[in-house]
Structures are given as structure tokens and as C-alpha cells.
Amino acid sequence: MSFRTRLISFFIVIVLAPMLAVAILVFRLISDSGHAKAQARANGLVTAATSVYAYDEAAARGAAASLARVAAGLPSSALPARLSAVAAEAGLVRVVLTHDGRPILDIGSHAAIAPGTAVFRRGHTITRVTVSTTTAGKYATSLGLGSGVVVRQGTRVLASNLPGGRHVPPSDGETSVRGTGYQTATTDPLPGFGSERVRVTVLSNLRATATSLNTSRLLAAGFIAGFVVLALSFAVLASRGLESQLSRFLRAARRLAGGDFSAPVPVEGKDEFAMLAVEFNNMSDQLAERLDQLRAERARLRESIRRAGETFASNLDRQGLLSLALKTALDAVEGEFGRLSVRSEEDAPLREVARESSLQDVSNVVLEAERGALQSRALHEAADGELFAAAVPLGPISSEGRAHGVVTVGRRGRPFDADDRDLLRSLVAQATLALENVELHREVQRQAVTDELTGLANHGRFQEVLGSEMEQVRRYHYPVGLIMLDLDNFKQINDTYGHPQGDLVLKSVARVLRDTSREADSAARYGGEEMALILPHTDLEGSYAIAERVRTAVGQLRIPLLSGDGTLEVSASLGVGVTSDGHKEALIAETDAALYRAKREGKNRTVRAGPIPANVAGGE
Q1: Which of 217, 273, 310, 530 has the least C-beta neighbours within 10 A?
Q2: What pLDDT digit, counting tens, does each position of 553-594 carry?
């Protein structure tokens, strides 16, 4: 039996029977795909409904905060009337006011949803203001999803924009409303007024999905029929003289699929098959060479990233570190644009500190990736046509879920794969560790020179700054003033009101010292209740004027008593000294002597330093 006869004979068994099975499988997959599309569309509508609900909640929280600020300044008796008027002016749908959980005011529609709450304290009473800016009906109308929406609170239906939709069960699946088929999906429980939660059910019309399903079936049937015709034609036309040549190429293809590039296809004769064998062998050689290049490039890239990670761990320049982290992340994934944003403090908003390339045309996809990363606390990707972006939160992540920052990279034409995602996670983890090292180093440096109670420089830092200033004085011979301040009767304050009250007094006086001094001056806690102020380029009269300003400001302090029984007034005695020859110990001694003269002469006064004793003037 000839090859052509065998090919035609086996065609029915080898091609038609499997194609029948494939056809059944394809039609089954098309049907499942239609159901999946309907469910995916319904899930997308649920996501949109949840986002709109969250937006309404945010608007309500803002309105509640504004209403709380108004309520905080009003007496309790005036709250209901005033808040009712403000709510009416602001167009609020519902306002609920409670004192320590007791309802004081509840106005507006009971179909209100998406409440926002603000809390303030007056004395020992906690007042809670809960506000809604929309009703269930407005919310259902504002979604504009092009399908049905049913809003429930508990078992009660608040609103529906679909005739007959109130009878739709709050579950996922297919249902029929007045003869029309819908795919339903329901949100997770959402906050509402009272203890019962709000759930939103969306209904996606199955008509569009059914039309698409029929079109797909027709295309699949045409494709399968065409394939059968082409296969039969090929079997008839290619039956002569192809068996040995096809076998060689088949074996070579299998070797290449297994990664074996060592055995080329034999070249026999000069016909088209010989030319094809030459080109096949050339392609095999180029593919093997390219794979070797890719392996080498991947190894180089990983080594570069490892070195960048080590640089992260040893770099104490915070801004330089952040810029390096962004550039390294872009290089690692061949990104085209990106930015890095961080928080300066736990409660501060994110602020952009590094950027690569313009984000003008890609801001939407960048923002979407960043929002997803901050919400999920993990790597999040976003896409918009040919634009792809990936964002990774920069730890540490606080107990409230706020990340220290976020790194975002993007590119055009190619989505991120698993290796890209692993590289980004690894780099951001290393950058996070490096930032923690920088912050720890800064904190250790700050604690080493700062008095913990007052926030002023400690005694050691005072001596260091004054010594450095004396070196400049000896070189350039300019005057440096020194003010020594001691609180009057401070022991009596501690004995009468306790040490916590004394600590509050010290903090208040330290704040006065900072506020009344100049930017170039250096304030320090010298010890106990004694503080000091170094005044570069200031003569005796200028130093005396600043000291008097400090003393007057201290006398004007009204420090609240921790018991709540009024305020406490304090005074301070100050000594002022100046040097132009750079003798540190002499300057401290004469200023300290002036301080104690002020104490002996009646306190609450400033005394200029007099002549320095001979046995002190030679010190440094």
C-alpha cells in the first residue's frame, strides 16, 4: 500500500476522530468561557459598586469631620438645632448625633447609606457624628453600570433600579427577571447605619454574552471544518516522497524541543529539503547562541542587583539611597518610567522623592498600581492598553496598614513576568532594610546629643558646640555671648505639685528658649533646671537684650496644672557673659557667676558678667 493510500486511509482515524473530540471540547470550552465572561463582568460591576460606595463613604467622613468641628464649638443645648441647620445647608441626607452612645439627634432619610463618622471629646463625654451624603436610590442611579442594582440592609430592600429587581435573591448565580436572564453578584457586607450591614447585588444582562457565545461557536465550527479540508488536501498532495524527509525533520524538531542542539539535520542533495535542512541547522545554532547569551545576561543582571542590594545596606544617604533604589528597580525589569514616594512620618501623606522619566501620559496606570499595592500590602500590577505598571509597598507596614512608601515602575508593550516580580520584591525588601538602617543611624545620632525631656541639646552637645565656637573665636576674634538660665524656686514646684508638673515646666521653658532665640543660636539643657544659650557674633549688650526677651517670655507663661485646678506662673534668673578670646571655661565661669548674682539680688532678673578672677581667666 502506497504512502498516499496509507495517509488517506489513516486520515479518518488519525485526524477526523480527534477533530471530533476537539470540536466537542472546544464547544464545551466556549460555553464555559461564556459563563466565565458573564461572571467576570458581574464581578467587575461589583468592584465598581464597591468603589463608588467607598467614595461616598469618604465624602461622608469629610462632611462628618466638618460637622464635628462645628459641633465642638457649640454648647450641648444648641447642638441639635445648629447641626440640623448646617446639615440642611450642606444637603446631607442623614445626620445622627450621639453622646456616649446615647442618640441626641437623628434627622434625614432612613434609606441613607455609606455613612461616615467623626468623633470628638468634650470633657469626659465622647460625641460621635455620623453623616450620609447619599441614599440607596441615588447610589443605585449614580452607578450607571448599564445593568440592574439592588441595595439591601439586612433583609430589607432599600432601592433597586430594575423593575422587578426587588425579588432577586442576594446571591451569586443566574436568575431571570421578567423574562430576561441575568448573572448576579453581590458585594461583601458594607458599613451602614445601625448594626445591620449593607449588601449591593448587581445584575449583568446575559444577552450580550449569549450573542458573543453564538458568534464564537460559528467561528469555531468554521475553523474546524476548514482545518479538516486543509488536512485532507495536504494528505493527498504531500503523500509522495515525503516519508523519509519528514521523519528526519521530526526527529530533529524533537531534539530541539528537548534542548539538544548537538545533532544537526543531515543535508542530502540540493533540493528544497536540503535548503530547508541548512536553514534549520542555522536556526538551531542561532537559538543555542542566543540562549547562552540570555543565561549570561541573566547572571550579570542578578550579580548587578546583588551588588546594588549590598550598596543599599551600607548607604546612609537617604535621598541617594531612594534614587538608587528606583534606578536599580527600573534597570532590573527594563522599565521606562517610574517613581518612588515615601512618608516623612507615620501619619504624613506619601510624597514623591524620586522620579525617572515623565509620568504625564502614564499617570493613570501608575496611580492604579500604587493604590492597589497600598491596599493589598503586596505587589500590584495595572495595565492600560500597551502600558504596564507594577508597584511594591516599601515597608515597614504599620499595624494600621500604612506602608512607609511605594516603589512604582512601568514600561510599554510587555507585561511583567514572574521573574520581574521576584526581582522587584527582592529589591524593595533590600531597600526597606537599608532605609531602616538609615533611620536607626539618625535616631542614634539624635539621641546621643539631645536631652530626652526638653528636646534641647544635652550637656555633652553644649560643651561640643561651645568648644567648636571657641576655636572659631580664637581664629577670627569675633564676640560670642552665653546666657545661663535657672528657674526660680523650682524645687518648691516639684515639692508642691510633683515631678510630672516640674517636667511640664521644664518643657515649657525650653520651648520659650527655642522660640525667642535666633536660628544661629544653640540652646541646651545645662543640667537640672538650668539651661544655656550660645549666641555667636553677639556682644554683651546684644546678649543682654536677648536674655531679657527670654526672661520676659518665661514670666508670661501660664502653665496648666496637671490637676486641672488653674495655671502656674514661673520666673527665671539669667546671667550673661561674652568672650572674644576663646576661653571656654572662663566664659562659663563668669556667666555662671552672673547667674548666681541674679539669684542673690532677688531673682527674676538678668545680670551681666563682671571681671573674671585671675585664676579662672586662663582656663579654656
Answers
A1: 310
A2: 999 999 999 998 899 999 999 999 999 998 999 999 999 999
- Indicate the residue type of 271: D
Distance of alpha carbon 197 from alpha carbon 320, whole angstroms = 48
In a domain, 452, yes or no: no
Parallel/antiparallel/unpaired status of strands 387-394 and 559-560: unpaired
Instruction: Based on the fold, state whether residues 43 and 178 are members of the same structural domain.
Output: yes
Contacts of 316 (CB under 8 A, 6+ apart): 437, 438, 441
Domains identified in the chain, total number: 4
DSSP state of 457: B
- Is residue 601 domain-resident? yes
| Beta strands 480-487 and 530-536, pairing class | antiparallel
Cell numbers of 196, please?
445591620
Provide the CATH number for the domain around residue 378: 3.30.450.40
Strand partners, 112: 135
Cβ proximity of 534 and 522 under 8 Å: yes
Q: What is the DSSP letter of 258?
A: T
CA atoms of 534 and 598, how far apart (whole Å): 19
Which one-letter amino acid corresponds to residue 486? D
Alpha-carbon dihedral 422, 425, 427, 430, rounded to 10 degrees = -130
The domain boundary, picked from 214, 240, 266, lies at: 240
Grid coordinates representing 443 are: 535616631
Does residue 450 belong to any structural domain of this protein? no
User: Which set of grid coordinates corresponds to residue 265?
Assistant: 539535520
Contacts of 429 (CB under 8 A, 6+ apart): 395
pLDDT at 619 over 50: no
Amino acid at 540: L
> Under 8 Å CB-to-CB from 411, ≥6 apart: which residues?
333, 334, 335, 336, 337, 388
Q: What is the pLDDT of residues 198-222, one digit of tens each?
A: 998 888 877 766 677 677 778 877 8
For the chain, what is the total number of helices (H) and then of strands (E)?
16, 23
Q: Based on the fold, state whether residues 257 and 337 are members of the same structural domain.
A: no
CA angle in degrees (0–180, nearest 5) for 93-99-105: 30
Q: Are 172 and 185 in contact (CB under 8 A)?
A: yes
Instruction: Tell me the C-alpha distance between 26 and 22, whole Å.
Output: 6
The H-assigned helical ranges of 488-619 are: 490-497, 499-516, 540-555, 584-600, 614-617
Do residues 430 and 492 both lie within one domain?
Answer: no
E strands of 350-463, at which residues?
351-356, 380-384, 387-394, 405-412
Q: Quick one: cell of 153?
A: 440592609
> Looking at the chain, how many residues does it have?
620
**Closest-CA residue to 267 (of 249, 253, 255, 250):** 249
Average the pLDDT over each of 128-142, 255-269, 333-347, 505-519 and give the range with the smallest value: 255-269
Grid cell at residue 438: 538609615
- Co-location of 32 and 146 in the same domain: yes
**Under 8 Å between Cβ of 427 and 332:** yes
Q: What is the 3-state secondary structure (H, E, C) of 557-594?
A: CCEECCCCCCEECCCEEEEEEEECCCCHHHHHHHHHHH
Alpha-helical runs (H) found in 258-386: 272-314, 318-333, 363-376
C-alpha cell at 54: 467607598
